[in-house]
Structures are given as structure tokens and as C-alpha cells.
Design brief:
single chain; mainly alpha; two-stranded antiparallel sheet; about 5% strand; globular
């Protein structure tokens, strides 16, 4: 196994060494070429002039709808814990509402933004980042506190956005490897470090074939829709490039996640694989326009390896060492692959500014997450049971049969 792993890594390094300069050069020519001379009606750089503001707005309308759809699919991505399925869906709805509303209120009343497609897209970016973040501590807080979590998350997102694109200059992150994925993972980790809910380690998180099928469906649909997410704020003439590199990165992680599931465990763990197959689209967020198709494929192959390794070998050790449980393993997909994407963007085009941005995003996310976590802990009170739909829902009843450790059992 070790020889296969060494050969795989060596081949990727060779391909990256010879291919990356060409792809970086191609990317920089498009990103820094004619686009600096022409701008779209909403002041986004492009290589051709848009016809009308209406055309640009209609184009973005479709992207807004796709990203909202992706946001709701994230609920199904987390819908595998038996006896805690309705709660996941309700938590997603609640945190979505308050994070979006809070973000837009901050932007309008404090920064003077007008209501347009750009603000709506950024608002839903904030909301989807918050939804990913709650996956770290999902099931360990009271249901009403997801409203509070969304409201607390929005100002933290605005702060990270300011750090990356106002305070710093030249950060490369068009698809959100840092702004969305890193922030989601480490804001959520800040919360669990403050909560210190030890009982989460002991609560059964058994899944069923049916519940895991929801995860498969959600991950495959998210994979298909991902180019809309990473290109939502790009001018129309650069969308095609972003779509191609996103899909190539995604195909890379589909392949490498399977290979390393088989190398590590001999069989495919469906939960590990359904998450890790999206590692490429997460990592390509920063270098989206700085590579060509084959460079994107290499990034996806490496990201799939990183995510699968993190799920199988790093997750339990890290959680045990820190004394907290990352419930959905958000760090293993969004955290580590977001970091990898930021570093790839730094190597290919941005240089040290991306590294500085990465460090700042990590620190801001952890600190603001800690603050939010202490507020949530202070208002939570005593939770008798974790990961339980029965606590919050009428008409809930246990399934007559369950599966624990592969054995069919009778629920009581």
C-alpha cells in the first residue's frame, strides 16, 4: 500500500511541476489581460463588454436560484443520523433565514449597499457558509439557537469578507475556498471549542441504508451544480473557464477518493466517499481561473486524497486530541481542502497575499466562533438528549426497526 501511495504522490508532483507554469500563465493572461480595460455594468472586470444591465441581471438570476437550491441540498447531505433527520432540515431553514437577513441588513444599513443580484448572491453565500458551519455542532444545541447562530454568523462573515477583499489587495479566491469553506469549518470549530459538549462522543449516530441514500443524492446533485456556485460573481465571459476547471477538479476527486478508500479500507465507506468526492470543487475555488483543465484535474486528484485521508485517519485523532466532536466532519472536506485550495492559488498566481489571507481567515473564524459558542453555551441551559427529533417535533415516532453495527434491531 505504501508503494502505491508513494507512486501516486510522485506522479502528481511531476505533473504539477511541468504543467502548473503553463496553466498559471494561461490563467493570468485571461485574468489580467483585456479584462482590465473593459468592465460589465456592475463593475466586474471582463474581456468583453456586456450588452445591457438587464442581460447581466438575468444571467445572475439563474445563478442565484442554483445556489439557493444547493443550500437546501446541504440539509440532505447531513441527513444520515437515525432519529435526527427532521431536526437537520429545520436547523438548516432557521440558520438560513437569520444569516441571510442579518447579512443583508448589515450591508444595507451600515455599508449602504442597494438591493440587487450582487447583494442577494453574497447574502446566500453567507447563508450557505453558515449552513455548512452548523454541521460541526449539529444536534448539540437547542433548536431555537440555530436562529441565534445564524444572526451571530453574519457579522463574522462580513468581517472575513472585509479582511480578504478590502484590507488585503490581490487575494485570489473567486470560488470561495477561503471565504466559504475555510470560514465554515473553523467558525464551527470555534463554536464546539466553546461548547465543550463531551456527550457528543457517546451519542449513537447510527445510519440506515435509506438515510445514506439521501446523502448520495445530495452529494451528486451538489457536484453537478457546483460550477454555478464558483462562477456566480464572475463576468459572463469567464464563466465557461470556471465551469470547465470546476468539473475537471470534481472528476479528479471522484477518482482519487475511490482509490484511497479502497487502499485504506479495502471497501468504500459510503459516507466518507460521498463527502470526499466533492473535495475537488472545494479546492478549486481559489485557483479557479489560474489553471487550465489538466491543472484542475491534478488539484482535484490531490484534494480527493487529502479529504479521504483526513476522514479516515485524521478525524478521530484530531477530535480526541482537542476534546470536541466535529459532528459532520466539516474540517475533513471544507477545512483542509479549503486550505489546500488557498495554497494552490498562492503558488499559481497570488503569492504571499493568499497565505496572509489564509492565516487571517483561520484566526478570525476561530475567534468569532469562540465568541458565538460562549453566547450559545450561556443561553442553552441543560439539554437532556442530543441528536433527537423527538425533543422538538409533534407526530414523531421511532422506526420499528433499526440498524446498529450492521445488525437489524427492534427500536424501543
Amino acid at each position: 500500500m505504501s508503494k502505491i501511495l508513494q507512486l501516486f504522490i510522485l506522479s502528481l508532483l511531476l505533473v504539477t511541476t511541468f504543467a502548473a507554469p503553463t496553466f498559471a500563465q494561461e490563467g493570468s493572461e485571461v485574468a489580467r489581460g483585456m479584462g482590465e480595460e473593459l468592465r460589465t455594468p456592475i463593475s466586474q472586470p471582463g474581456s468583453v463588454e456586456d450588452m445591457t444591465l438587464l442581460q447581466d441581471e438575468l444571467y445572475r438570476w439563474n445563478k442565484v436560484m442554483d445556489v439557493w437550491f444547493m443550500l437546501m441540498l446541504v440539509a440532505f447531505l447531513m441527513l444520515f443520523i437515525k432519529k435526527f433527520e427532521w431536526g437537520v432540515c429545520l436547523a438548516v431553514c432557521l440558520v438560513t433565514a437569520t444569516s441571510f437577513i442579518s447579512y443583508c441588513a448589515i450591508k444595507q444599513f451600515l455599508f449602504g449597499w442597494e438591493w440587487n443580484q450582487g447583494m442577494v448572491i453574497m447574502g446566500v453565500f453567507c447563508a450557505i457558509t453558515a449552513v455548512i458551519a452548523i454541521g460541526v455542532f449539529l444536534g448539540t444545541i437547542r433548536m431555537w439557537q440555530y436562529l441565534l447562530a445564524g444572526a451571530l454568523f453574519a457579522p463574522a462573515f462580513v468581517l472575513v469578507e472585509w479582511w480578504m477583499f478590502t484590507f488585503l489587495k490581490g487575494v485570489v479566491d473567486p470560488g470561495g475556498s477561503m471565504l466559504v469553506h475555510m470560514m465554515a469549518a473553523y467558525w464551527g470549530w470555534g463554536v464546539i471549542l466553546a461548547l465543550r459538549e463531551k456527550r457528543a462522543f457517546d451519542e449513537p449516530q447510527n445510519s440506515t441504508t435509506h438515510s445514506v441514500a439521501f446523502v448520495w443524492l445530495a452529494s451528486m446533485l451538489l457536484w453537478v451544480l457546483w460550477p454555478s456556485f464558483v462562477t456566480a460573481l464572475l463576468p459572463a465571459d469567464q464563466v465557461h473557464w470556471g465551469m470547465v476547471t470546476c468539473y475537471m477538479a470534481g472528476l479528479g476527486s471522484i477518482i482519487s477518493a475511490y482509490i484511497f478508500c479502497m487502499i485504506y479500507q479495502g471497501k468504500v465507506n459510503p459516507l466518507v466517499y460521498t463527502y470526499s468526492l466533492m473535495a475537488g470543487p472545494v479546492a478549486i475555488g481559489s485557483p479557479l481561473l489560474s489553471v487550465g483543465p489538466w491543472g484542475a484535474l491534478v488539484i482535484g486528484l490531490i484534494a480527493g486524497f487529502i479529504s479521504t485521508t483526513s476522514f479516515i485517519y485524521v478525524h478521530k485523532r484530531l477530535c480526541k486530541a482537542m476534546g470536541v466532536l466535529d459532528v459532520m466532519g466539516v474540517n475533513n472536506l471544507h477545512g483542509v481542502c479549503g486550505i489546500f485550495g488557498a495554497i494552490a492559488g498562492a503558488i499559481l498566481v497570488a503569492g504571499w497575499v493568499n497565505i496572509i489571507s489564509l492565516i487571517g481567515v483561520f484566526m478570525i473564524s476561530i475567534v468569532t466562533g469562540l465568541i458565538a459558542g460562549f453566547i450559545i453555551k450561556a443561553t442553552r441551559g441543560v439539554m437532556i438528549e442530543l441528536f433527537a427529533d423527538a425533543t422538538d417535533f409533534d407526530l414523531w415516532h421511532p422506526e420499528p426497526l433499526g440498524i446498529e453495527d450492521g445488525v437489524v434491531t427492534q427500536n424501543k
